[in-house]
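Entry 14. Structure prediction run on the chain below.
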Amino acid sequence: MNRRNLLATGGATGLVALSGQGIAEAGSYRVPSEESRHDRTFMQWPVNRQVHPDPVFLDMAQQAIADIANSIAEFEPVTMLADKADHRGARRKLSERVELWDIPTEDLWCRDAGPVFVVNDAGELSVTHIQFNGWGEKQVNARDLKIAARVAERLGLRLVPSGLRGEAGGVEQDGHGLLLAHESSWVNDNRNPGLPRDEIEARLLAAYGAERMIWSEGVWGEDITDYHIDSLARFTGPGRVLINLPDEPDMNDPFHLAALDTYDRLEAEGLEIEAIPEPYRHRVKSVDFVASYANYYVCNGAVIAAQFGDPETDDIARDALSRHYPGRDIVTLDVDPLGEMGGGIHCATQQMPAL
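Output returned:
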C-alpha cells in the first residue's frame, strides 16, 4: 500500500479517550535533539495483511526494515517490536545484534506509533504520549495505537498525556526549544477535532519542552500523513535546517507548492537553510514514490540515509549530510519499498535518549 493513497485498509478502530491532564507538568520536560547520544533505537516489524496484502511486497518491506535495523545495530542497540508469533520470521532477516520484544505491531512506522521520550530536569526519562490514531483513522491501528504505552510500561516509565492525537513524524524539533510542523498534519479534524491551532501549538510546546514553533500550511488530504514535515525539512542543529526541494518545481503539484512555502517561512524566521535537490532519476517510476533525502536517521556515530540510484544527487545528499553531521559515518541504503509506501528511514525509527 502507498501512504499517498487515502484508502482505509481495514477500517477505523475507534479513538482512544484523551485528557489534557498532565500537560502543564510536561512543560518541565524536553525532548533531546536526535543527534544527542541514544540508549537505543526502537523499530516495528510490519506484518498486517490488510495493510500489506501482497506477500511479495510485504517480504520486501520487512527486508528493508531489517536492513535499516541491522545497519543501526552496528552503531547502537536496536529493539524491534513484534508479536511473539512473528519473532521467528523476523529473526531470519535480523542481525543477532537486534533485540526482539513481544509487543504486537501492524505496520512499520515507529516514528508515528512509537514512544516519544522526554527528559526532566533531574535527568529522568518519561514518555510524552501523542496518541497515534492511524493518521486520522485511515489505516487499521488496533495494535499500533497501543505501542507507546506498552513500551513505557515495559521500561517502567511514566506516560505523560499530551492531549493530542497525531504523530511525531508530523513535528520536527531541534532539541533547543524550536519546533516546525505543517498545519495539515495537526490542525485537522481527523486528529484533533475542534482544537484551534493556538491550543495545538501550546500542547506540542509543552509535550516537547520547547519554546517556539514555526508553522507552514502543508497539504490536506493528498496523502495518508497529510504531509509530514520529516520528509521535507530537518533541523541539523540550533537554527540550522536541511531541506529537500525540487530543482524545477511543478506549480500544479500541491506538495511542491507547500515545500516552497515552508522554505519561505523558514527563511523569514532567519534560519540557516541548505537546500538539496530531489533525485532527478530513481529506480521506482511511480508518481507517488517518495524520494526524500531528508528522511534520514541520526544514531550514535552515524547517519542512516536513503540512496535512490541517481549518482549525482545521491552524492550531493551524502556530502550535505557529511557537512551537517561531521565525524559521523554516512551509511546509505536502498529502501525503495518504504518510498513506495510514502515514507523513509526516519519514519521507521524512534530514538531513546541516553542518560
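The chain has one domain: 23-353.
Filed with the rest of this week's runs.
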